[in-house]
Amino acid sequence: MPPLLKMLDAGILVSVSTDGSASADNQNILAAARLASQYQKAYHKDASVLPAQKVLELITVDAAALLNLNAGSLEKGRLADLTVLSTTRPNLVPTRLTNVVENLVWASDGSEVSMVIGHGKLLRDGDDFKTLNREEVIDKVSRLSEQFDDYCAGAKLKITGTGAHR
């Protein structure tokens, strides 16, 4: 458990990120932020630590500052990166101005993403990926997975999970 609160209190710039698919379940940054906060709340036995607003900052403005990127917030002169989420998904209802940040951090599951813009370019609109051929990517990943299984079988390798095999 990283001493996140001590690091923040000491003025250390901290961010939350996701790991790659090979070693993590997903790249859902809101889920990673939620988990980081829940770990700290449990560790410190204090539900008030790392409130939703700070958690959101850890994955936006603080992450951009840590990486020395001109991004992280929607301001003139910054990179135009934006993810639009639908607040009408059942898990986010009701969402109002008074609870939008809390809902994003505590109730989102990733299915709410309706649009992604990166560097000012539309990358995803609904289920339509603008820069990738979804079927081609799925086909390539499926073929690579089959090849990997064949390789493991031929090499008599047994690959186990990240603790699930215990």
Describe the SSE topology.
Elements: H1 4-9, H2 29-44, H3 52-58, H4 61-66, E1 82-85, H5 100-107, E2 113-118, E3 121-125, E4 128-129, H6 134-154
Antiparallel strand pairs: 1-2, 2-3, 3-4
Report what the structure shows.
The chain contains 6 helices and 4 strands, in the order ααααβαβββα. With 166 residues, the chain is an alpha+beta fold. The chain folds into 2 domains: 128 residues, Urease, subunit C, domain 1; 35 residues, no CATH class. Strands 1-2-3-4 form a 4-stranded antiparallel β-sheet, with no helix packed on it. A hairpin with a 2-residue loop joins β2 and β3. α2 packs across α3 and α3 crosses α5. The protein starts with a helix and ends in a 12-residue tail after the last helix. The mean pLDDT is 89.
Keywords:
alpha+beta; Urease, subunit C, domain 1; 166 residues; four-stranded antiparallel β-sheet
With strands numbered from the N-terminus, the spatial order across the biggest sheet is: 1-2-3-4
C-alpha end-to-end distance: 22 Å
The CATH architecture name of the largest domain reads: Roll
* Count of helical stretches: 6
Number of domains: 2
Total beta strand runs: 4
Short description:
By secondary structure, this protein is of the alpha+beta class. It is built from six helices and four strands.
